[in-house]
Structures
1.
Amino acid sequence: MAFSTLIRLTAALSVLGTTLAKDWESPEYKWLYQYPLPIPQTKALNRTIPHPVTGKDINYYEVEIKELKQQVYPDRGPATLVGYDGLAPGPTFQMQRGTEAVVRFINKSKNPNSVHLHGSYSRAPFDGWAEDVTKPGEYKDYYYPNGQNARTLWYHDHAIDITAVNAYYGQAGVYVLHDGEESALNLPSGNYDVPLVLSSKQYNNDGSLFSPASETTSLYGDVIHVNGQPWPYFKVEPRKYRFRFLDASISRTFQLYFESDKKLGEKQDFNVIASDAGLLSAPQKVKDLYISMAERYEVVMDFSKFKGENVTLRNSRKIAADIDYLHTDKVMKFVVGKDSVEDNSVLPSSLRSIPYPQDRTTIDHEFLFERKNGGWRINGVSFADTANRVLAKPPRGKVETWKLVNGGGGWSHPIHIHLVDFKVVSRKNGRNAVMPYEAAGLKDVVWLGPNEEVVVEANYAPWDGLYMFHCHNLIHEDHEMMAAFNVTFLADLGYNETHYLDPMDPEYRAKAIKPEAFTDDAIRKRIQFMASFQPYNKVDETEAVLDAYWATKGSRAVAAAATTGSSPTKTTTTAAATTTPGKRGRGRRGRSELQ
Ligand SMILES: [Cu+2]
């Protein structure tokens, strides 16, 4: 050990007691707060294509998945990453509610990929099902609804068994959905609305990334990045900013807080305004914020009282089983300008009315997330166990409560349920409380800390079909802590618009890259064909039909055994008559998972 390393290690240990397992796994990174925060570029629109039924524009984009070199260490070789458009994080999509989009992801990398738009109620064939891979040399068209309320989504890899590697090497990006209601609030916007994508990685001596490929439990990482840059600085004006935090780490959870260099050891107030599913009911004033993998939290930080100061974004130590290193308690530095500026943005006292699902006291399912026989399991089942991996079959439109139980061992598991926005109802053991910023909105990931039991409640709508739920420690996910649920087709709904039950529907699988598929004419025809089945534009009608159906059952929340289908319940809306061709109807190939 070099003398300087010994001094540093001794100093670190004497300051922090036994918190640190090691000071570095990577080569020492000496350039804290010396490089500026990168802002991912906005994804440019390729073209618009008219919807053949509604006539509205569909936005069309192309993204190439390909290698890039990133000079992480100024004194070593570059790291080779693989990112969307050769960027890591990928370009930021800026979307407007009500305008559908098709994104053609073109695989020019060496690994298979699958793209999940996290936070979107995409139809099953466009949701990034792990086995729906696009091989190198293929492309796939993902059709996205942009039909939900404004929120921060992210798009990232979900390919079977290699999600951790693909996401860690760069396949992750931000996807912002805007809507008029949110824009009218006049929150900080434009240059004052900034995505902050957190990640934690480890490097080899030559400056290349240390791969998580052979890890079986976690890769915590000792180098903290924001938007791809280790420990950056960001020059801010003394005014309000909106920060969109995403924890894109594969294994590290953060407890973030702001600290002024003039008041070390003191946590400064900030307001959490949004979570995974968009705005909270009201700003939640806090001094710190837990954010686990895949969670998104948006905050408003007011720098006006820190003129001319440096404000550091810090991370707490001793979070779950996460390994602390010398600088993993630091994230980035804000350098606040000296001169007053005009700030016309607003932090309203209320933000929106949250569409919580109807309360339901019964627990419909209990899922145990545990380490068993050296693997990661949900109720003892692995994703590879295709005959048994469908662990829930909520009837379409039903409200269900799921109890998520941490099987122990000191591990933590952020649990993501695809398709739905859920309410975090309760948490027992561990922190033993629902955080105010979890309770004041809807989520699609909940952090199941050590020993915790969390109850979540969701309306399994608007679509039926086969979707995944899993741990978002991506190493746990790849080692099979993933299962499926089938939102079942309601035979007695009298509304058969669905032909998107099967995420592996051959119609939408990846195709080989051929020049003739990339002509203007071919792209227009293909998208108009996909749009002709109206995957999303009848969502209001669909929800009305489901409301009417569940009204006949008394309540979405208390109705039981609604799957029988023995009492045909014709709804009276005209929508009930709307169907798509029977050939493309339900379960046409009889996959057992779809029954
Ligand atoms: Cu886990």
2.
Amino acid sequence: MRKQMVLHYRHWLIRCAPERVAGFWCAAVEVWRPARDPENAGEIVPLTKLFDDAADACVDGLEAAKRWIDARSGGVPPAIDAQAHLVANVSDTVSPVTMLILGRPLCLPCIATKARATEADAQAALTSIGALRDLRRRDHERCRGCGEVRRAFWLDAPSR
Ligand SMILES: [Zn+2]
């Protein structure tokens, strides 16, 4: 199964998919400039970091994509691009959290740590995800991050 994340940032399209590299995970990240047809090949964001975990690789890959896009959006300070930035921020938190908990129960502190977000942001992301998808939640579940039995959240992985 190959998980892929798609999101918009500053009107760019980002696609991020984990790839197995030498026994580790690396994110394969492709970006498309605004109004560019995603049917055509995008620009490959060069990545070198390797991770033990596919979701961690994707979180890092998305950050690299945002830095890549920021560097190519010169002359447009984020403040002027406020609306796009706001949309990006919302989906930026939601998407990594979705990726993290796909088929993997995690407690809130672990979600926040892995998504590099505050617990409040992670909680907000879970609320958003729960509005769109069937978010699973159990009070006494073994967190796959820290191993503690506590309240955990997850999404059933798509059976494809
Ligand atoms: Zn945990």
